[in-house]
Amino acid sequence: MKRYKNASELYDIFYEKRKEDIVFYNGIVGQYKSEFDNNRVIEIGAGTGRVLLPIAKAHPDLEFHAVDIIGDEIEVLKEKASYAGIKNIVTHVADINEFQSKEKFSFAFAPFRVLQHCQSVADLDRMLKSTKELLSENGRFTFDLFNPWLHMMVKEGVVFDGNYHDREGNTINRRVEINHRDYFKQTQDIEEYYTVKYTDGKKAEFEWLYTTGYFFKDTAAMVLEKNDLNVDNLYSGFDRRPFGQGEYPGDLIFDCIKNKKGLSR
User: Fold this and answer.
1) What angle do CA 70, 46, 37 make, to 5 degrees?
2) CATH 3.40.50.150 residue ranges in the chain?
């Protein structure tokens, strides 16, 4: 019987049915890759590869680099890639602000609100500057954020509590709590607790505690412009609805292109 070693091994169970962002980012790669300066793509905050693996499989002509600061998640990604026979992925355990590459990337993407691990505008500025420096002359950067929803932002305590089942029939309870928000700093402390009940009666418990920031549309756009990342498209959903259309709150999805040297805005 499988025994889970850490919280990272549970991630794919929770998001097994989430496919819309995979379809979106795969479509972006397919749309723009004929314009890429080279065949190098980087995912920032690749995690366990939920988004990256199907895209890398669909585009064997591209070389994908997976960067994440959590080594346990990269290990899960590597195991999944090996099992699926996907060989065009290079993994890196690193902070994107410290990651260096001799060769530039034509496309960078950061799905599932990765940039919200930035806890201030200064953090966001630093991360966007680091990303810009990794991009080729005509490089693109696409990412999504939570669209701050005031009705949601006043809720505290348990915001989710539900059960999942893995393929061996084990039950995993996931409880998500937000017990502190700082409205001045625009941050929230998130606590995730997982209880695994194995079919043989044994039990295991894991936790993941982290702080995220949130950014309103105009703030994010301002920091992007400061770093010479022009917003080419702004969407409110993974079906590519323009921002401001569709059901509120939707998402904040920025599709950006790096300014050419000397290009005036």
Assistant:
1) 135
2) 7-147+216-258
What confidence score (pLDDT) does residue 186 get? 96
User: 7-147+216-258 domain in CATH 3.40.50.150?
Assistant: yes
Evaluated on CA atoms 255, 89, 134, 8, the torsion sign reads: positive
Contact 17, 179 (CB under 8 A): no
State the pairing for strand pair 135-146/105-110. Answer: parallel
CATH for 150-213, options being 3.40.1350, 2.40.128, 3.30.70, 2.20.25: 2.20.25
Span 155-184, pLDDT tens digits? 899 999 999 999 999 999 999 999 999 999
Strand 251-258 to strand 135-146: parallel, antiparallel, or no bridges (unpaired)?
antiparallel
In the structure encoding, which two tokens stand for residue 197, read together?
């009940």
Q: Which two tokens stand for residue 219?
A: 């703030």
* Residue 44 to residue 126: CA distance in whole angstroms: 14
Q: Which residue stretches of the chain have pLDDT < 70?
A: 260-265
Mean pLDDT across the chain: 95
> Residue 100, CB half-sphere, CA atoms under 13 Å: how many?
2
Q: Helices 217-226 and 121-134 meet at what angle, rounded to 10?
A: 50
According to the model, what pLDDT value does residue 263 have? 38
pLDDT tens string 62-79: 999 999 999 999 999 999
Residue of 72, 36, 96, 20 whose CA lies nearest to 253: 20
Where in the chain do CATH 2.20.25 domains reside? 150-213
3 state SS of 236: coil
What is the structure's pLDDT at 265? 40
